[in-house]
Design a protein that fits this description.
CATH architecture of the largest domain: Orthogonal Bundle
Radius of gyration: 40 Å
Oligomer: single chain
């Protein structure tokens, strides 16, 4: 398990431990590259031995990206560290809601914040076709924003990939009844968990797991009614998804009240300069005195001047100056903005061909052209080796701006499937089952058999349980029935033993066979001849190099023969 102070992939440093449950442990941490806080989830080995679940989390990371929604923590990385899957989520360096509820906060605004922001997070996830699956207070981070507290939901995808996540003794109280019974997570399961979390926030204690529990009439507005609707025992009685819950919350509860004074919006109104205001007042005063001087004959006579109106000439001069300066005052800043915009517009480049190249090769190619790479999905493709790119968007040859992100899909190679058991089945049924498993039946080989009925499969190669690439062939050996003059041995006849023969000594031996090298699969038979007669005790197809061990038995004097493709290659007495 993770230790405080160590690093995951030399990037994420593990900090203080968080909450833990039977399936996982969480830790606060920091991204040493960007110096931003993160959450790390280490899955225990009891649930980690599922490669498909690990691949599901990797695919989810391409859809739940950092910065995708203000109240949903994006997945930064899905790594394997010392044999344990580790998932890294965004963080705002806040406090877990479960820790916050352990002490009284006295903040009446907290339930509104949790209800509004958590409903918005659920609506975003459900719109993308994802369900959280393990929604509980420990997966909710409450942080202090610019205008008040905010909520960040993290841990997305863990409940869907691993059924045991969120089902511990302390976590299951928030799970929907169908989830406790082992059902897959659906949006209505998240809705129930939302109601349970909100009930805990309103009352200060977790809701009991008994059905029919009704929350007390506490909290702002109609939150109690929202809790009752969301925690309905039957799935069909709850709101359909997070958007329906968000509509209900908006109708019942006003938006959370912001704390403190909002930040001023700068850049829209020019700030006032006291000195320039006083200068303007002085200019206005002078102008008023000039106007009075020009229009008052009495004052002009006192000063010994002629009463001449100065207003019209000054007005004409000011208008002329304004007519000349106004285009310059408006045009010069616009010209500067245009030049700056032209310089900031990125150049166009051509997307290079990256299909068929590895991710690292493609990243270097794109970096040379000032482009970015994003792996959005992984897919099985038997025609392209694992690790190489099978698809990109925009395609090669397209003109794009510098700085554009090119999305690619990476091949996982051919899918491996498990060979099903088809022996003793009719040949048609065996071919159908192989086709359902993604395999093909090779052109059938036929052989006589006194223990397998005509038209049924005697043996198959490779044997059941082996892993093959999807589309591979399985060789079937089909029975032609017993040879002419022979009859198939029935189980009833086999069990009847002559009393005289039954008194003979029963001997056993271990027979080992190493199948020699050959171009195709070979039929191996082990035949026993004793006092009871001749019988085949082993019959199967095998690949070259297979090792066979079989224990045989016989009564009285007995001989064991190993037959390879109808030729005796070994014989011994018991």
């Amino acid at each position: 398990m993770l230790q405080q102070g160590e690093r995951v992939r030399d990037r994420f440093e593990v900090g203080r431990p968080g909450h833990g449950e039977p399936a996982l442990s969480t830790f606060a941490g920091v991204d040493v590259r960007s110096r931003t806080p993160v959450w790390l989830v280490a899955l225990h080995r009891s649930v980690a031995d599922d490669p498909e679940a690990f691949a599901q989390l990797r695919r989810l990371a391409a859809r739940i990206r950092p910065g995708g929604h203000p109240h949903v923590a994006g997945i930064l990385a899905v790594e394997e560290h010392r044999g344990y899957p580790v998932v890294v989520y965004e963080s705002h360096q806040g406090e877990s809601l479960s820790e916050l509820l352990l002490r009284p906060t006295g903040d009446e605004n907290l339930p509104r914040v949790v209800a509004r922001h958590l409903a918005e997070a659920m609506a975003h996830l459900h719109l993308k076709g994802e369900a959280h699956g393990a929604l509980a207070p420990q997966w909710i981070e409450v942080y202090e924003g610019d205008v008040g507290p905010g909520v960040l939901l993290w841990g997305v995808g863990l409940g869907g990939a691993y059924r045991r996540v969120g089902q511990g003794p302390h976590e299951a109280v928030y799970s929907a009844p169908e989830r406790r019974r082992g059902g897959a997570p659906v949006p209505q399961s998240d809705v129930y968990s939302f109601g349970a979390v909100l009930a805990h926030t309103l009352t200060g204690s977790p809701p009991p797991s008994s059905p029919g529990w009704q929350p007390p009439a506490a909290g702002p507005g109609g939150l109690s009614g929202v809790v009752q609707r969301c925690m309905a025992p039957r799935v069909e009685d709850r709101p359909a998804d997070g958007q329906a819950v968000l509509d209900m919350v908006k109708a019942q509860v006003p938006p959370p009240k912001p704390r403190g004074r909002p930040r001023p919006i700068t850049g829209l109104v020019a700030p006032q300069n006291p000195s320039s205001s006083r200068a303007r007042e002085r200019r206005l005063g002078v102008w008023q005195r000039v106007r009075r001087l020009g229009t008052s004959p009495a004052r002009a006579a006192v000063r010994g001047t002629t009463a001449v109106s100065l207003a019209p000439p000054v007005s004409m001069t000011a208008g002329l100056i304004g007519a000349l300066l106004l285009p310059l005052l408006i045009g010069l800043p616009m010209l500067a903005l245009y030049v700056r915009w032209q310089r900031s517009v990125p150049d166009e480049v051509t997307v290079p061909k990256v299909v068929g190249k590895t991710v690292e090769q493609a990243r270097r190619l794109l970096l040379d052209r000032e482009l970015k790479l994003a792996v959005v999905d992984e897919t099985y493709d038997p025609s392209i080796p694992a690790g190489q790119i099978v698809w990109c968007k925009p395609p090669a040859g397209r003109k794009v701006k510098e700085g554009r992100t090119i999305s690619v899909r990476v091949s996982r190679g051919a899918r491996q499937v498990t060979v099903p058991e088809v022996t003793r089945l009719k040949a048609s049924e065996a071919r159908r089952r192989l086709q359902e498993a993604g395999l093909h039946a090779a052109d059938g080989r036929m052989a006589y058999s006194d223990i397998v009925s005509e038209g049924a499969v005697i043996s198959q190669s490779p044997q059941a349980g082996r892993k093959l690439l999807e589309g591979s062939e399985v060789v079937l050996l089909v029975s032609k029935g017993p040879r002419a003059g022979e009859q198939a041995r029935s189980p009833e006849r086999t069990r009847k033993v002559d009393p005289v023969i039954a008194k003979l000594e029963r001997r056993t031996a271990k027979v080992t066979v190493d199948v020699p090298q050959a171009a195709t699969a070979q039929r191996v038979q082990i035949r026993v001849v004793d006092a009871e007669g001749e019988r085949v005790v082993y019959d199967g197809l095998h690949e070259p190099g297979d090792h066979i061990e079989e224990t045989v038995a016989g009564r009285g004097p007995a001989t064991v023969s190993v037959i390879l493709d109808d030729q005796v290659i070994h014989q011994q007495a018991l």
